[in-house]
Design brief:
42% of the residues are buried. The N terminus is likely disordered. This protein has a ten-stranded mixed β-sheet with strand order 1-15-14-13-12-8-11-10-9-16, with helices on one face. Strands 4-3-2-5-6-7 form a six-stranded parallel β-sheet, sandwiched between helices. Helix 5 runs parallel beside helix 6. Strand 5, helix 5 and strand 6 form a beta-alpha-beta unit. 33% of the residues lie in helices and 23% in strands. By secondary structure, it is of the alpha/beta class. It has two domains: 135 residues, 3-Layer(aba) Sandwich (Rossmann fold); 177 residues, Dihydrodipicolinate Reductase, domain 2.
Length: 390
C-alpha cells in the first residue's frame, strides 16, 4: 500500500492536472452518450382517422372568451357532433366564430340554447369564473357540459358541480387539451397502459407558456379566474392523475410568484407544485416566460418514470432540431427509441360523443377530472408566495 501511495503521488506530480485530465477517457466526463444507437419509429394512428363517427349529437356553444373554444368545437365535430347554435356577447369573436361555422345559428340569448330540447351538449370557453355556474345551469336543463380548463375556480364551485352531476346524472367534461388533444400524449397513454415502462413512479411536467401580453383580455390578469396553478397547472395535474392512475391524491407543496410583471400586482408568472397519489408522485412547473426565439408558444415537456423504463415527451417543439412537434422518447430494458407520434389519431371527440349517447365515461373518467381540479384548487389556495429581492 505504501508503494502504491508513493507511486500515485509521483504519477500525479509528473502528469499535472492538465495532463491527468487529457489522459482520461471522454466517457469519464460523460461528454458523449454511451449505449447503442437510438431506434427511430413512426407510431401508427391507433384509430382510423378517416372513419365516419359511430354516433351523432346536436350541440351548442356558449362563451367564446378564450380561443380554446375553437379546438373544443372541432373535437366534438370530429366525434360526430353537429354544431347547431352558439351565443356570445363579444362582437369580434362572434363574427370570427360565425365565419368558421356558417351553418350554426347565432342565438339571441343563453336561455334560447338551454331551453332547446334538441341540444344535448353545451360547450364553453367562457371567462373561467363563469364556467361552473354555466355548467350547472346546463346540467339542470338536462344537457351535458364540456368546459375549457380551468372548469371551476373555487373549491365551492367544485363541490356544487359534483353535487349537481350526482343529482342529474349529466356529464361534466373538462378539456385538458395538453393530454387529450396531443398525439404524443395519446401515444404515451397507450404505452403506459401496455406496461412498456413497468409501474409508473413519477410524472414531471415542465410547462412554459408565452404571455403575449397585449393580446390578453382584462380578465386574464384577475386572480378570481384561477391563478397560474389553477389555470395552466390543471393541464399538468391531469397528466399526473392519468399516467399514475391515482384515484386519491394530495398536494405535498406549492409555490407561486410574480417575478416580472409588477404592473399586474396579483398576477402570477411562475408556480410549481409537488403531488402524491395512491398511484405515484408528481412534480409540475408552470410559467409565462417562453422567449420569442422559440418559435412556438411553449416547450412543453413530460417525463414519466417507471420501474422498468422512462418516457419523455417533447410535445410542441424539439429544440434539438427535429421538425414539428409530438416527439416521444422511450427507454426500456432493451433499447432506447424515438417515436414520431405526429400521425396518432385523437380519440377524445368520438369517445366523448359516444359517452353522451351511451351514458358512459370512456373519454374521461368523471372523478379523475374532478380530482385534477381539486388538486390545483388546493395547490393554488395553499401556495407559498415567493419574492426574489436579490
Amino acid at each position: 500500500m505504501q508503494f502504491e501511495n508513493v507511486g500515485r503521488r509521483s504519477f500525479l506530480k509528473t502528469m499535472g492536472a492538465a495532463g491527468m485530465m487529457s489522459a482520461l477517457p471522454e466517457a469519464a466526463f460523460a461528454l458523449h452518450p454511451g449505449g447503442s444507437t437510438i431506434a427511430h419509429e413512426v407510431a401508427a394512428a391507433g384509430l382510423d382517422a378517416e372513419a365516419q363517427p359511430k354516433h351523432s349529437i346536436k350541440f351548442a356553444v356558449i362563451g367564446l372568451d378564450h380561443g380554446h373554444i375553437l379546438g373544443i368545437t372541432e373535437a366534438v365535430i370530429r366525434g360526430g357532433g353537429e354544431l347547431v347554435a352558439f351565443y356570445s356577447t363579444l362582437p369580434r369573436e362572434t363574427a370570427a366564430f360565425q365565419k368558421a361555422h356558417p351553418t350554426a345559428r347565432l342565438a339571441k340569448s343563453e336561455e334560447e340554447i338551454l331551453n332547446d330540447p334538441s341540444i344535448q351538449l353545451v360547450a364553453s370557453a367562457a371567462i373561467p369564473c363563469l364556467r361552473a355556474p354555466l355548467g350547472i345551469r346546463a346540467m339542470k336543463h338536462g344537457k351535458d357540459f364540456l368546459s375549457d380548463k380551468p372548469a371551476m375556480t373555487t373549491l365551492e364551485q367544485l363541490a356544487e358541480v359534483r353535487k349537481v352531476t350526482a343529482e342529474t346524472g349529466r356529464l361534466y367534461g373538462i378539456m385538458y387539451s395538453e393530454r387529450l388533444e396531443v398525439p404524443a400524449a395519446v401515444q404515451a397513454g397507450y404505452l403506459v397502459k401496455q406496461g412498456a415502462i413497468g409501474k409508473v413512479v413519477q410524472t414531471i411536467n415542465i410547462a412554459p407558456h408565452q404571455l403575449n401580453a397585449p393580446s390578453r383580455p382584462a380578465w386574464h390578469w384577475d386572480t378570481r379566474n384561477g391563478g397560474i396553478l389553477c389555470d395552466i397547472g390543471s393541464h399538468q395535474a391531469d397528466q399526473f392523475v392519468y399516467f399514475t392512475g391515482s384515484t386519491t391524491a394530495e398536494v405535498t407543496a406549492s409555490q407561486i410568484a410574480n417575478v416580472n410583471h409588477p404592473e399586474h400586482k396579483e398576477f402570477q408568472d411562475f408556480g410549481d407544485m409537488m403531488l402524491h397519489g395512491n398511484g405515484g408522485a408528481g412534480y409540475v412547473r408552470v410559467d409565462w416566460f417562453t422567449p420569442g426565439g422559440l418559435g412556438t408558444w411553449g416547450d412543453g415537456r413530460l417525463f414519466i418514470l417507471g420501474t422498468e423504463g422512462y418516457i419523455e415527451l417533447r410535445k410542441y417543439v424539439d429544440v434539438a432540431g427535429r421538425p414539428g412537434g409530438n416527439h416521444l422518447f422511450i427507454v426500456d430494458g432493451k433499447q432506447a427509441r424515438y417515436i414520431d407520434c405526429s400521425k396518432v389519431a385523437l380519440p377524445f371527440g368520438p369517445q366523448f360523443v359516444g359517452d353522451i349517447v351511451n351514458r358512459t365515461h370512456t373519454a374521461q373518467n368523471q372523478e379523475a377530472a374532478f380530482l385534477t381540479m381539486e388538486l390545483v384548487l388546493k395547490a393554488q389556495k395553499g401556495a407559498k408566495v415567493l419574492t426574489f429581492t436579490a
